[in-house]
Amino acid sequence: MPPANPAVDTADVYALLERGRSMSTPVLRAAVDRLAPPMDTVAAYHFGWIDAEGRPADGDGGKAVRPALALLSAEAAGADPRTGIPGAVAVELVHNFSLLHDDLMDGDEQRRHRDTVWKVHGPAQAILVGDALFALANEVLLELGTVEAGRATRRLTAASRKLIDGQAQDISYEHRERVTVAECLEMEGNKTGALLACAASIGAVLGGADDRTADTLEAYGHHLGLAFQAVDDLLGIWGDPDATGKQTWSDLRQRKKSLPVVAALAAGGPASERLGELLAADAKSNDFERFSEKEFATRAALIEEAGGREWTSQEARRQHTVAIDALDGVDMPEQVRAQLTALADFVVVRKR
Amino acid sequence: MPPANPAVDTADVYALLERGRSMSTPVLRAAVDRLAPPMDTVAAYHFGWIDAEGRPADGDGGKAVRPALALLSAEAAGADPRTGIPGAVAVELVHNFSLLHDDLMDGDEQRRHRDTVWKVHGPAQAILVGDALFALANEVLLELGTVEAGRATRRLTAASRKLIDGQAQDISYEHRERVTVAECLEMEGNKTGALLACAASIGAVLGGADDRTADTLEAYGHHLGLAFQAVDDLLGIWGDPDATGKQTWSDLRQRKKSLPVVAALAAGGPASERLGELLAADAKSNDFERFSEKEFATRAALIEEAGGREWTSQEARRQHTVAIDALDGVDMPEQVRAQLTALADFVVVRKR
């Protein structure tokens, strides 16, 4: 792990995340308030602003890495951070549209320590409110009425398409016996990289940056996203449920072909082969739903023994380095560069 | 019914619909081809270009009223009809996104004489491909890179939001005992009026028309949409299954609070009251799924006796008149005006 930038420590990263959250949330809430009932209520539940009974709540709205990035992105282009707010809101809306739909498609019952929308409000509301948030994302940008907003919407649309491609790949991989490391990385680049890339460039685009600057910031965000997802894949197997809000061995329970799994299967050797046999048998097993902790622990140990955990950890660090190196291509205030670097550092050391 | 414009007869309307279809389909297919597998195949199945086994098919792609409108809309603004093509494609993509999601939410198993996507390819593909078509709609417009395209995307986004609002209302009404005629009209304005309004104005916007012209064409499309939906509601109860591709009494089987139903319930009198009692009992009945043709025929007869059929028929004609009157607000070539009028005439007399 490269040393964290001395000028920006972890406390500062939390302050950056908090700034992104506090500056974008009022605008996000105002946008969601425009939804026709009952979609406004369902969305407010999803964002953690109310509980399942409709009472005000102070739920976990997620890490808010994307809004923080969008604001820094505006500053990287020399604009006021507030210029990035509509971008931050639009990206958050697209991110949450995808969460609503993905949770339903994947049958995930928990998100951010709470029951998912389809579980509480039913599948139709999960589809509908996801659709509404997606539409709202474009609305929030396009109502700015500027040429820059048009460019930002075009980039957001491209990112959304990649996000959907990534989910399509993710679903198809779950039904396949073998997925290559390259396929997994491509899927994660689409599913996670594309929207972080958009978040990292959208503020700059709204601030009038040229395409080259925007593309370079996108590259930073793309690799940051790959680092982020590699860490997510580690947490999906070895994460602390109290911190992640997910079940133990969450990704294994869902037969996810995440990076540690595909890397372990590709590694060869006794542990890799034993893992391959077990997972092939699991795919056909009728008992899978009744597996105990012990069975998942065995699989996790084999993944680790085959080197899948270490490889994924190194991959996170590789992508982290590429992300930070990309920043060299943009002329920006040194303080902003230090903050983007610290955010990248945070992404690879986080526990949730 | 006002007399059809003598200059444009029914054969000409079919030619207009065919022109819209033949000019927009190649661009639509090229856009759908961009989707990552298996979404491209699922979308091609939905559009009727291939069958469930993947063999080329010449399926029923729908009436294609929207593409025809988008091309005429460009001509209304004095532009070449081809200027409207990206608008026609974008509107068709949004329309089909909503069909994919609505069929899943509503549990509809048949559309255009074929099994629906969720029935053939599963719910996840229906959600995913719907999302992809929605994103593609914005992409097709925004990649034009013009100021006009930005304005068109903004209008399409607003229409999409209304479409989603309308579906939310439609779903919520199915669970309510009483829905007023005003609520039903509002829902239909959102669910059907908004996108036809967009189709009727998007070509003009792409052709550089000012906001007033676009708004007036939108008004025409909105009322055309309300006329269209009133006719759809009639066909949903009394339509010929061979023509509509739906089951007999299709809307009654789904407990839809469509215009004939709400108008009949609002009318008062013995048939209206008897209908109200039956529908209230149906809502609680466990036998509803096993109802025979006779039970639905009884309900349809009561709706007709209470005046719901006649009221809806008149409503279609009222909206048709308002739509055509709206055209007076735009200066356009007389031939285009005659064609838009003939298209409105067609919408109210169609059998499918």
Give a written overview of the molecule.
The structure is a homodimer of 352-residue chains. By secondary structure, chain A is mostly helical. Chain A has one domain (10-349): Farnesyl Diphosphate Synthase, CATH 1.10.600.10. Helix content of chain A is 72%, strand content 1%. The first copy, chain A, is built from 16 helices and two strands. The first copy, chain A, has helices spanning 10-33, 39-46, 65-76, 85-106, 117-121, 123-142, 147-174, 181-206, 211-238, 241-244, 250-253, 259-267, 270-284, 293-305, 308-326, 334-349; strands at residues 110-111, 114-115. The first copy, chain A, has a two-stranded antiparallel sheet with strand order 1-2. In chain A, strand 1 and strand 2 form a beta hairpin. Chains A and B meet through helix 4, helix 6 and helix 7 of A and helix 4, helix 6 and helix 7 of B. Chains A, B: Belongs to the FPP/GGPP synthase family. Chains A, B: One of its GO terms (molecular function) is metal ion binding. Chains A, B: One of its GO terms (biological process) is isoprenoid biosynthetic process. Chains A, B: It holds the Pfam family polyprenyl_synt.
